[in-house]
Amino acid sequence: MRMYDIIQKKKDGLALTEEEIRFFTEGYTKGDIPDYQAAALCMAIYFKGMSPDETAALTFAIRDSGDRLDFSDIKGIRADKHSTGGVGDKTSLIVAPLVASCGVTVAKITGRALGHTGGTVDKLESIPGMRTSLSEQEFVEIANKVGVCMIGQSREIAPADKKLYALRDVTATVDCIPLIVSSIMGKKLAADDDCIVLDVKTGSGSFMKTLEESRTLARIMVDIGNKAGKKTMALITDMDVPLGFAIGNALEVMESIRTLKGEGPEDLTQLCIILASSMLHLADRGTIEECVELVKDALYSGRALEKFREMISAQGGNPKVIDHFSDFGAVPEKHIVRAPRSGYIYSVNTAQIGETSLLLGAGRNTVEDSIDPMAGIILLKKTGDQVTAGDPIAELYTWKKNILPRAEEMFLASTFISDIQPEAKPLVFDIIK
Ligand code: URA
């Protein structure tokens, strides 16, 4: 078999066989197939697409390119959620303790921030002392004792994706449905969960800009998850505006704590209730309506907050941050951004708001970049809100004072103020089972 022929075949719009797909992922992972041939194949896939069978074959080949995790020592049903990536998306921090406090285990391998989207591990690491790198034995022990544990990736999971994602990032082939599906599901299926709820984002802050594309992406991911024997469903949710008000690591953990205290922003609270109840429903804890009631009880009784406290303590973090935000450490002075004119916030470029937060120090451009846990943005006004010229619309936090003028300019360029009030959008557009 020759890589040249595989590229030629896809360029001609023909379907690749499972054998050809595995030849590619195995050869590329080992370094036998060079980047230029892998890039050519990604571009051919971008233009000619892949059938559902080819996409499934690529997903399973990526899953099998590295270690498969074995959670069989973790008691009970294991449920997970995965977001396709967004700005201000801190739902995992809230949903995981919510679900655990309802008796379903969440043993979660979480990712780091890259590009304009944030990563749960970086958020957790903003809690002083918090360990996100644990041995497998410790991970299993905490998951069994507390019911929830969240760590970063330690073993070599889906190395084919690691190489492919970096290559796609520099060859303009990220926004391609079969490549996104195989990248996300290849990693998800390497973990050993029984149920998976996918939060497929749609809008200006996500990879999928239209509802139709998001629906297609969700349908293919759900079918592949079910085919692999995991109970899988997807929610298509709004990412045309950041979720909640906080963007940045410690700022998002603080907002998550407020939400677990029942004092969170409406959009974030509602989405967390929907995601957590969907996970419980997949884990056979009742109808969706019954699971919504279970989740609300866990949230408003404070049980989920206590579960989060237990998890922080078990992972070496300082649980006092829950009661005293000053225990997160010193916060840089805030810089207020004001509305340049009167009107309504008509729309925002959410990805660009994510880029602004990255510039302030909350994200990373390359995996080696370090993160400032206290940097970020607090939105004071969101899409649909009325503003008068000069009103504060956001607070920027950074220790790098010299970049503030550029960050403010970027933030303002991402915010479109109009005389017309935009129509309100739903939080969840569709559910794909
Ligand atoms: N997240 C991933 O892990 N892979 C993609 O291709 C897109 C989002």
Notes on the structure:
With 433 residues, the chain is of the alpha/beta class. The chain has 3 domains: 3-49, Transferase, Pyrimidine Nucleoside Phosphorylase, Chain C (Transferase, Pyrimidine Nucleoside Phosphorylase, Chain A, domain 3), CATH 1.20.970.10; 79-156 and 191-322, Nucleoside phosphorylase/phosphoribosyltransferase catalytic domain (Pyrimidine Nucleoside Phosphorylase, Chain A, domain 2, 3-Layer(aba) Sandwich); 331-418, Aldehyde Oxidoreductase, domain 3. Helix content is 45%, strand content 15%. The protein has helices at 3-11, 18-30, 35-48, 52-63, 91-100, 120-125, 136-146, 159-170, 177-190, 211-227, 249-260, 266-282, 288-300, 303-314, 350-362, 404-413; strands at residues 79-83, 106-110, 148-152, 195-202, 231-238, 246-247, 334-338, 343-348, 376-379, 386-387, 392-397, 415-418, 428-432. A 4-stranded mixed beta sheet has the order 1-4-5-13, with helices on both faces. The model has no long low-confidence stretch (mean pLDDT 94). Bound molecules: uracil. Uracil is lined by residues 84-85, 165, 174, 179-180, 183-184, 207.
